[in-house]
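Researcher: We're reviewing a set of sequences before deciding which ones to prioritize for further study. For each one, I'd like a predicted 3D structure that I can look through quickly. This is Methylated-DNA--protein-cysteine methyltransferase. If possible, include the structure in token form so it fits the rest of the review sheet.
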Amino acid sequence: MFQSTLQSPLGPVTATSENGNHITDVSFCAPLCQRACTVTEQAAQQLLEYFNGKRLIFDLPLAPAGTDFQQQVWQALLSVSYGHTASYGDIARLIKNPKGVRAVGLANSRNPIAIIIPCHRIIGANGTLTGYAGGLDKKEWLLRHENAL
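Model: Here's the predicted structure for Methylated-DNA--protein-cysteine methyltransferase, in token form for your review sheet.
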């Protein structure tokens, strides 16, 4: 396992790669190991650029572990661009499963690659902020940072 951590306005953010080739996790926590690799260092650099307002799009190889349905949802999340939001229903319709709103919400909550796969950009149908694994305070900060609120 490889990890790189940066100090962000939200506390430590750690990028993990299981094999050194793809990012498998980004979370709001301190690292478990102190061994970095090229892809985790690239992720830390791009996240730093994001927090400094200099990066709107991430360009990293990603390999989140999840079910086929979760993968489909997480891929759809990547279509919600910086500064925009979408509802769980929007994502359900995008993946051609309009009745799967709750399942989309569950998959969204299990996203292992925070910020880069932008689950924070998904809000309730009425425009309210709803659950975020990192905490609603972080979700609100991220959306304000992107001028999406």
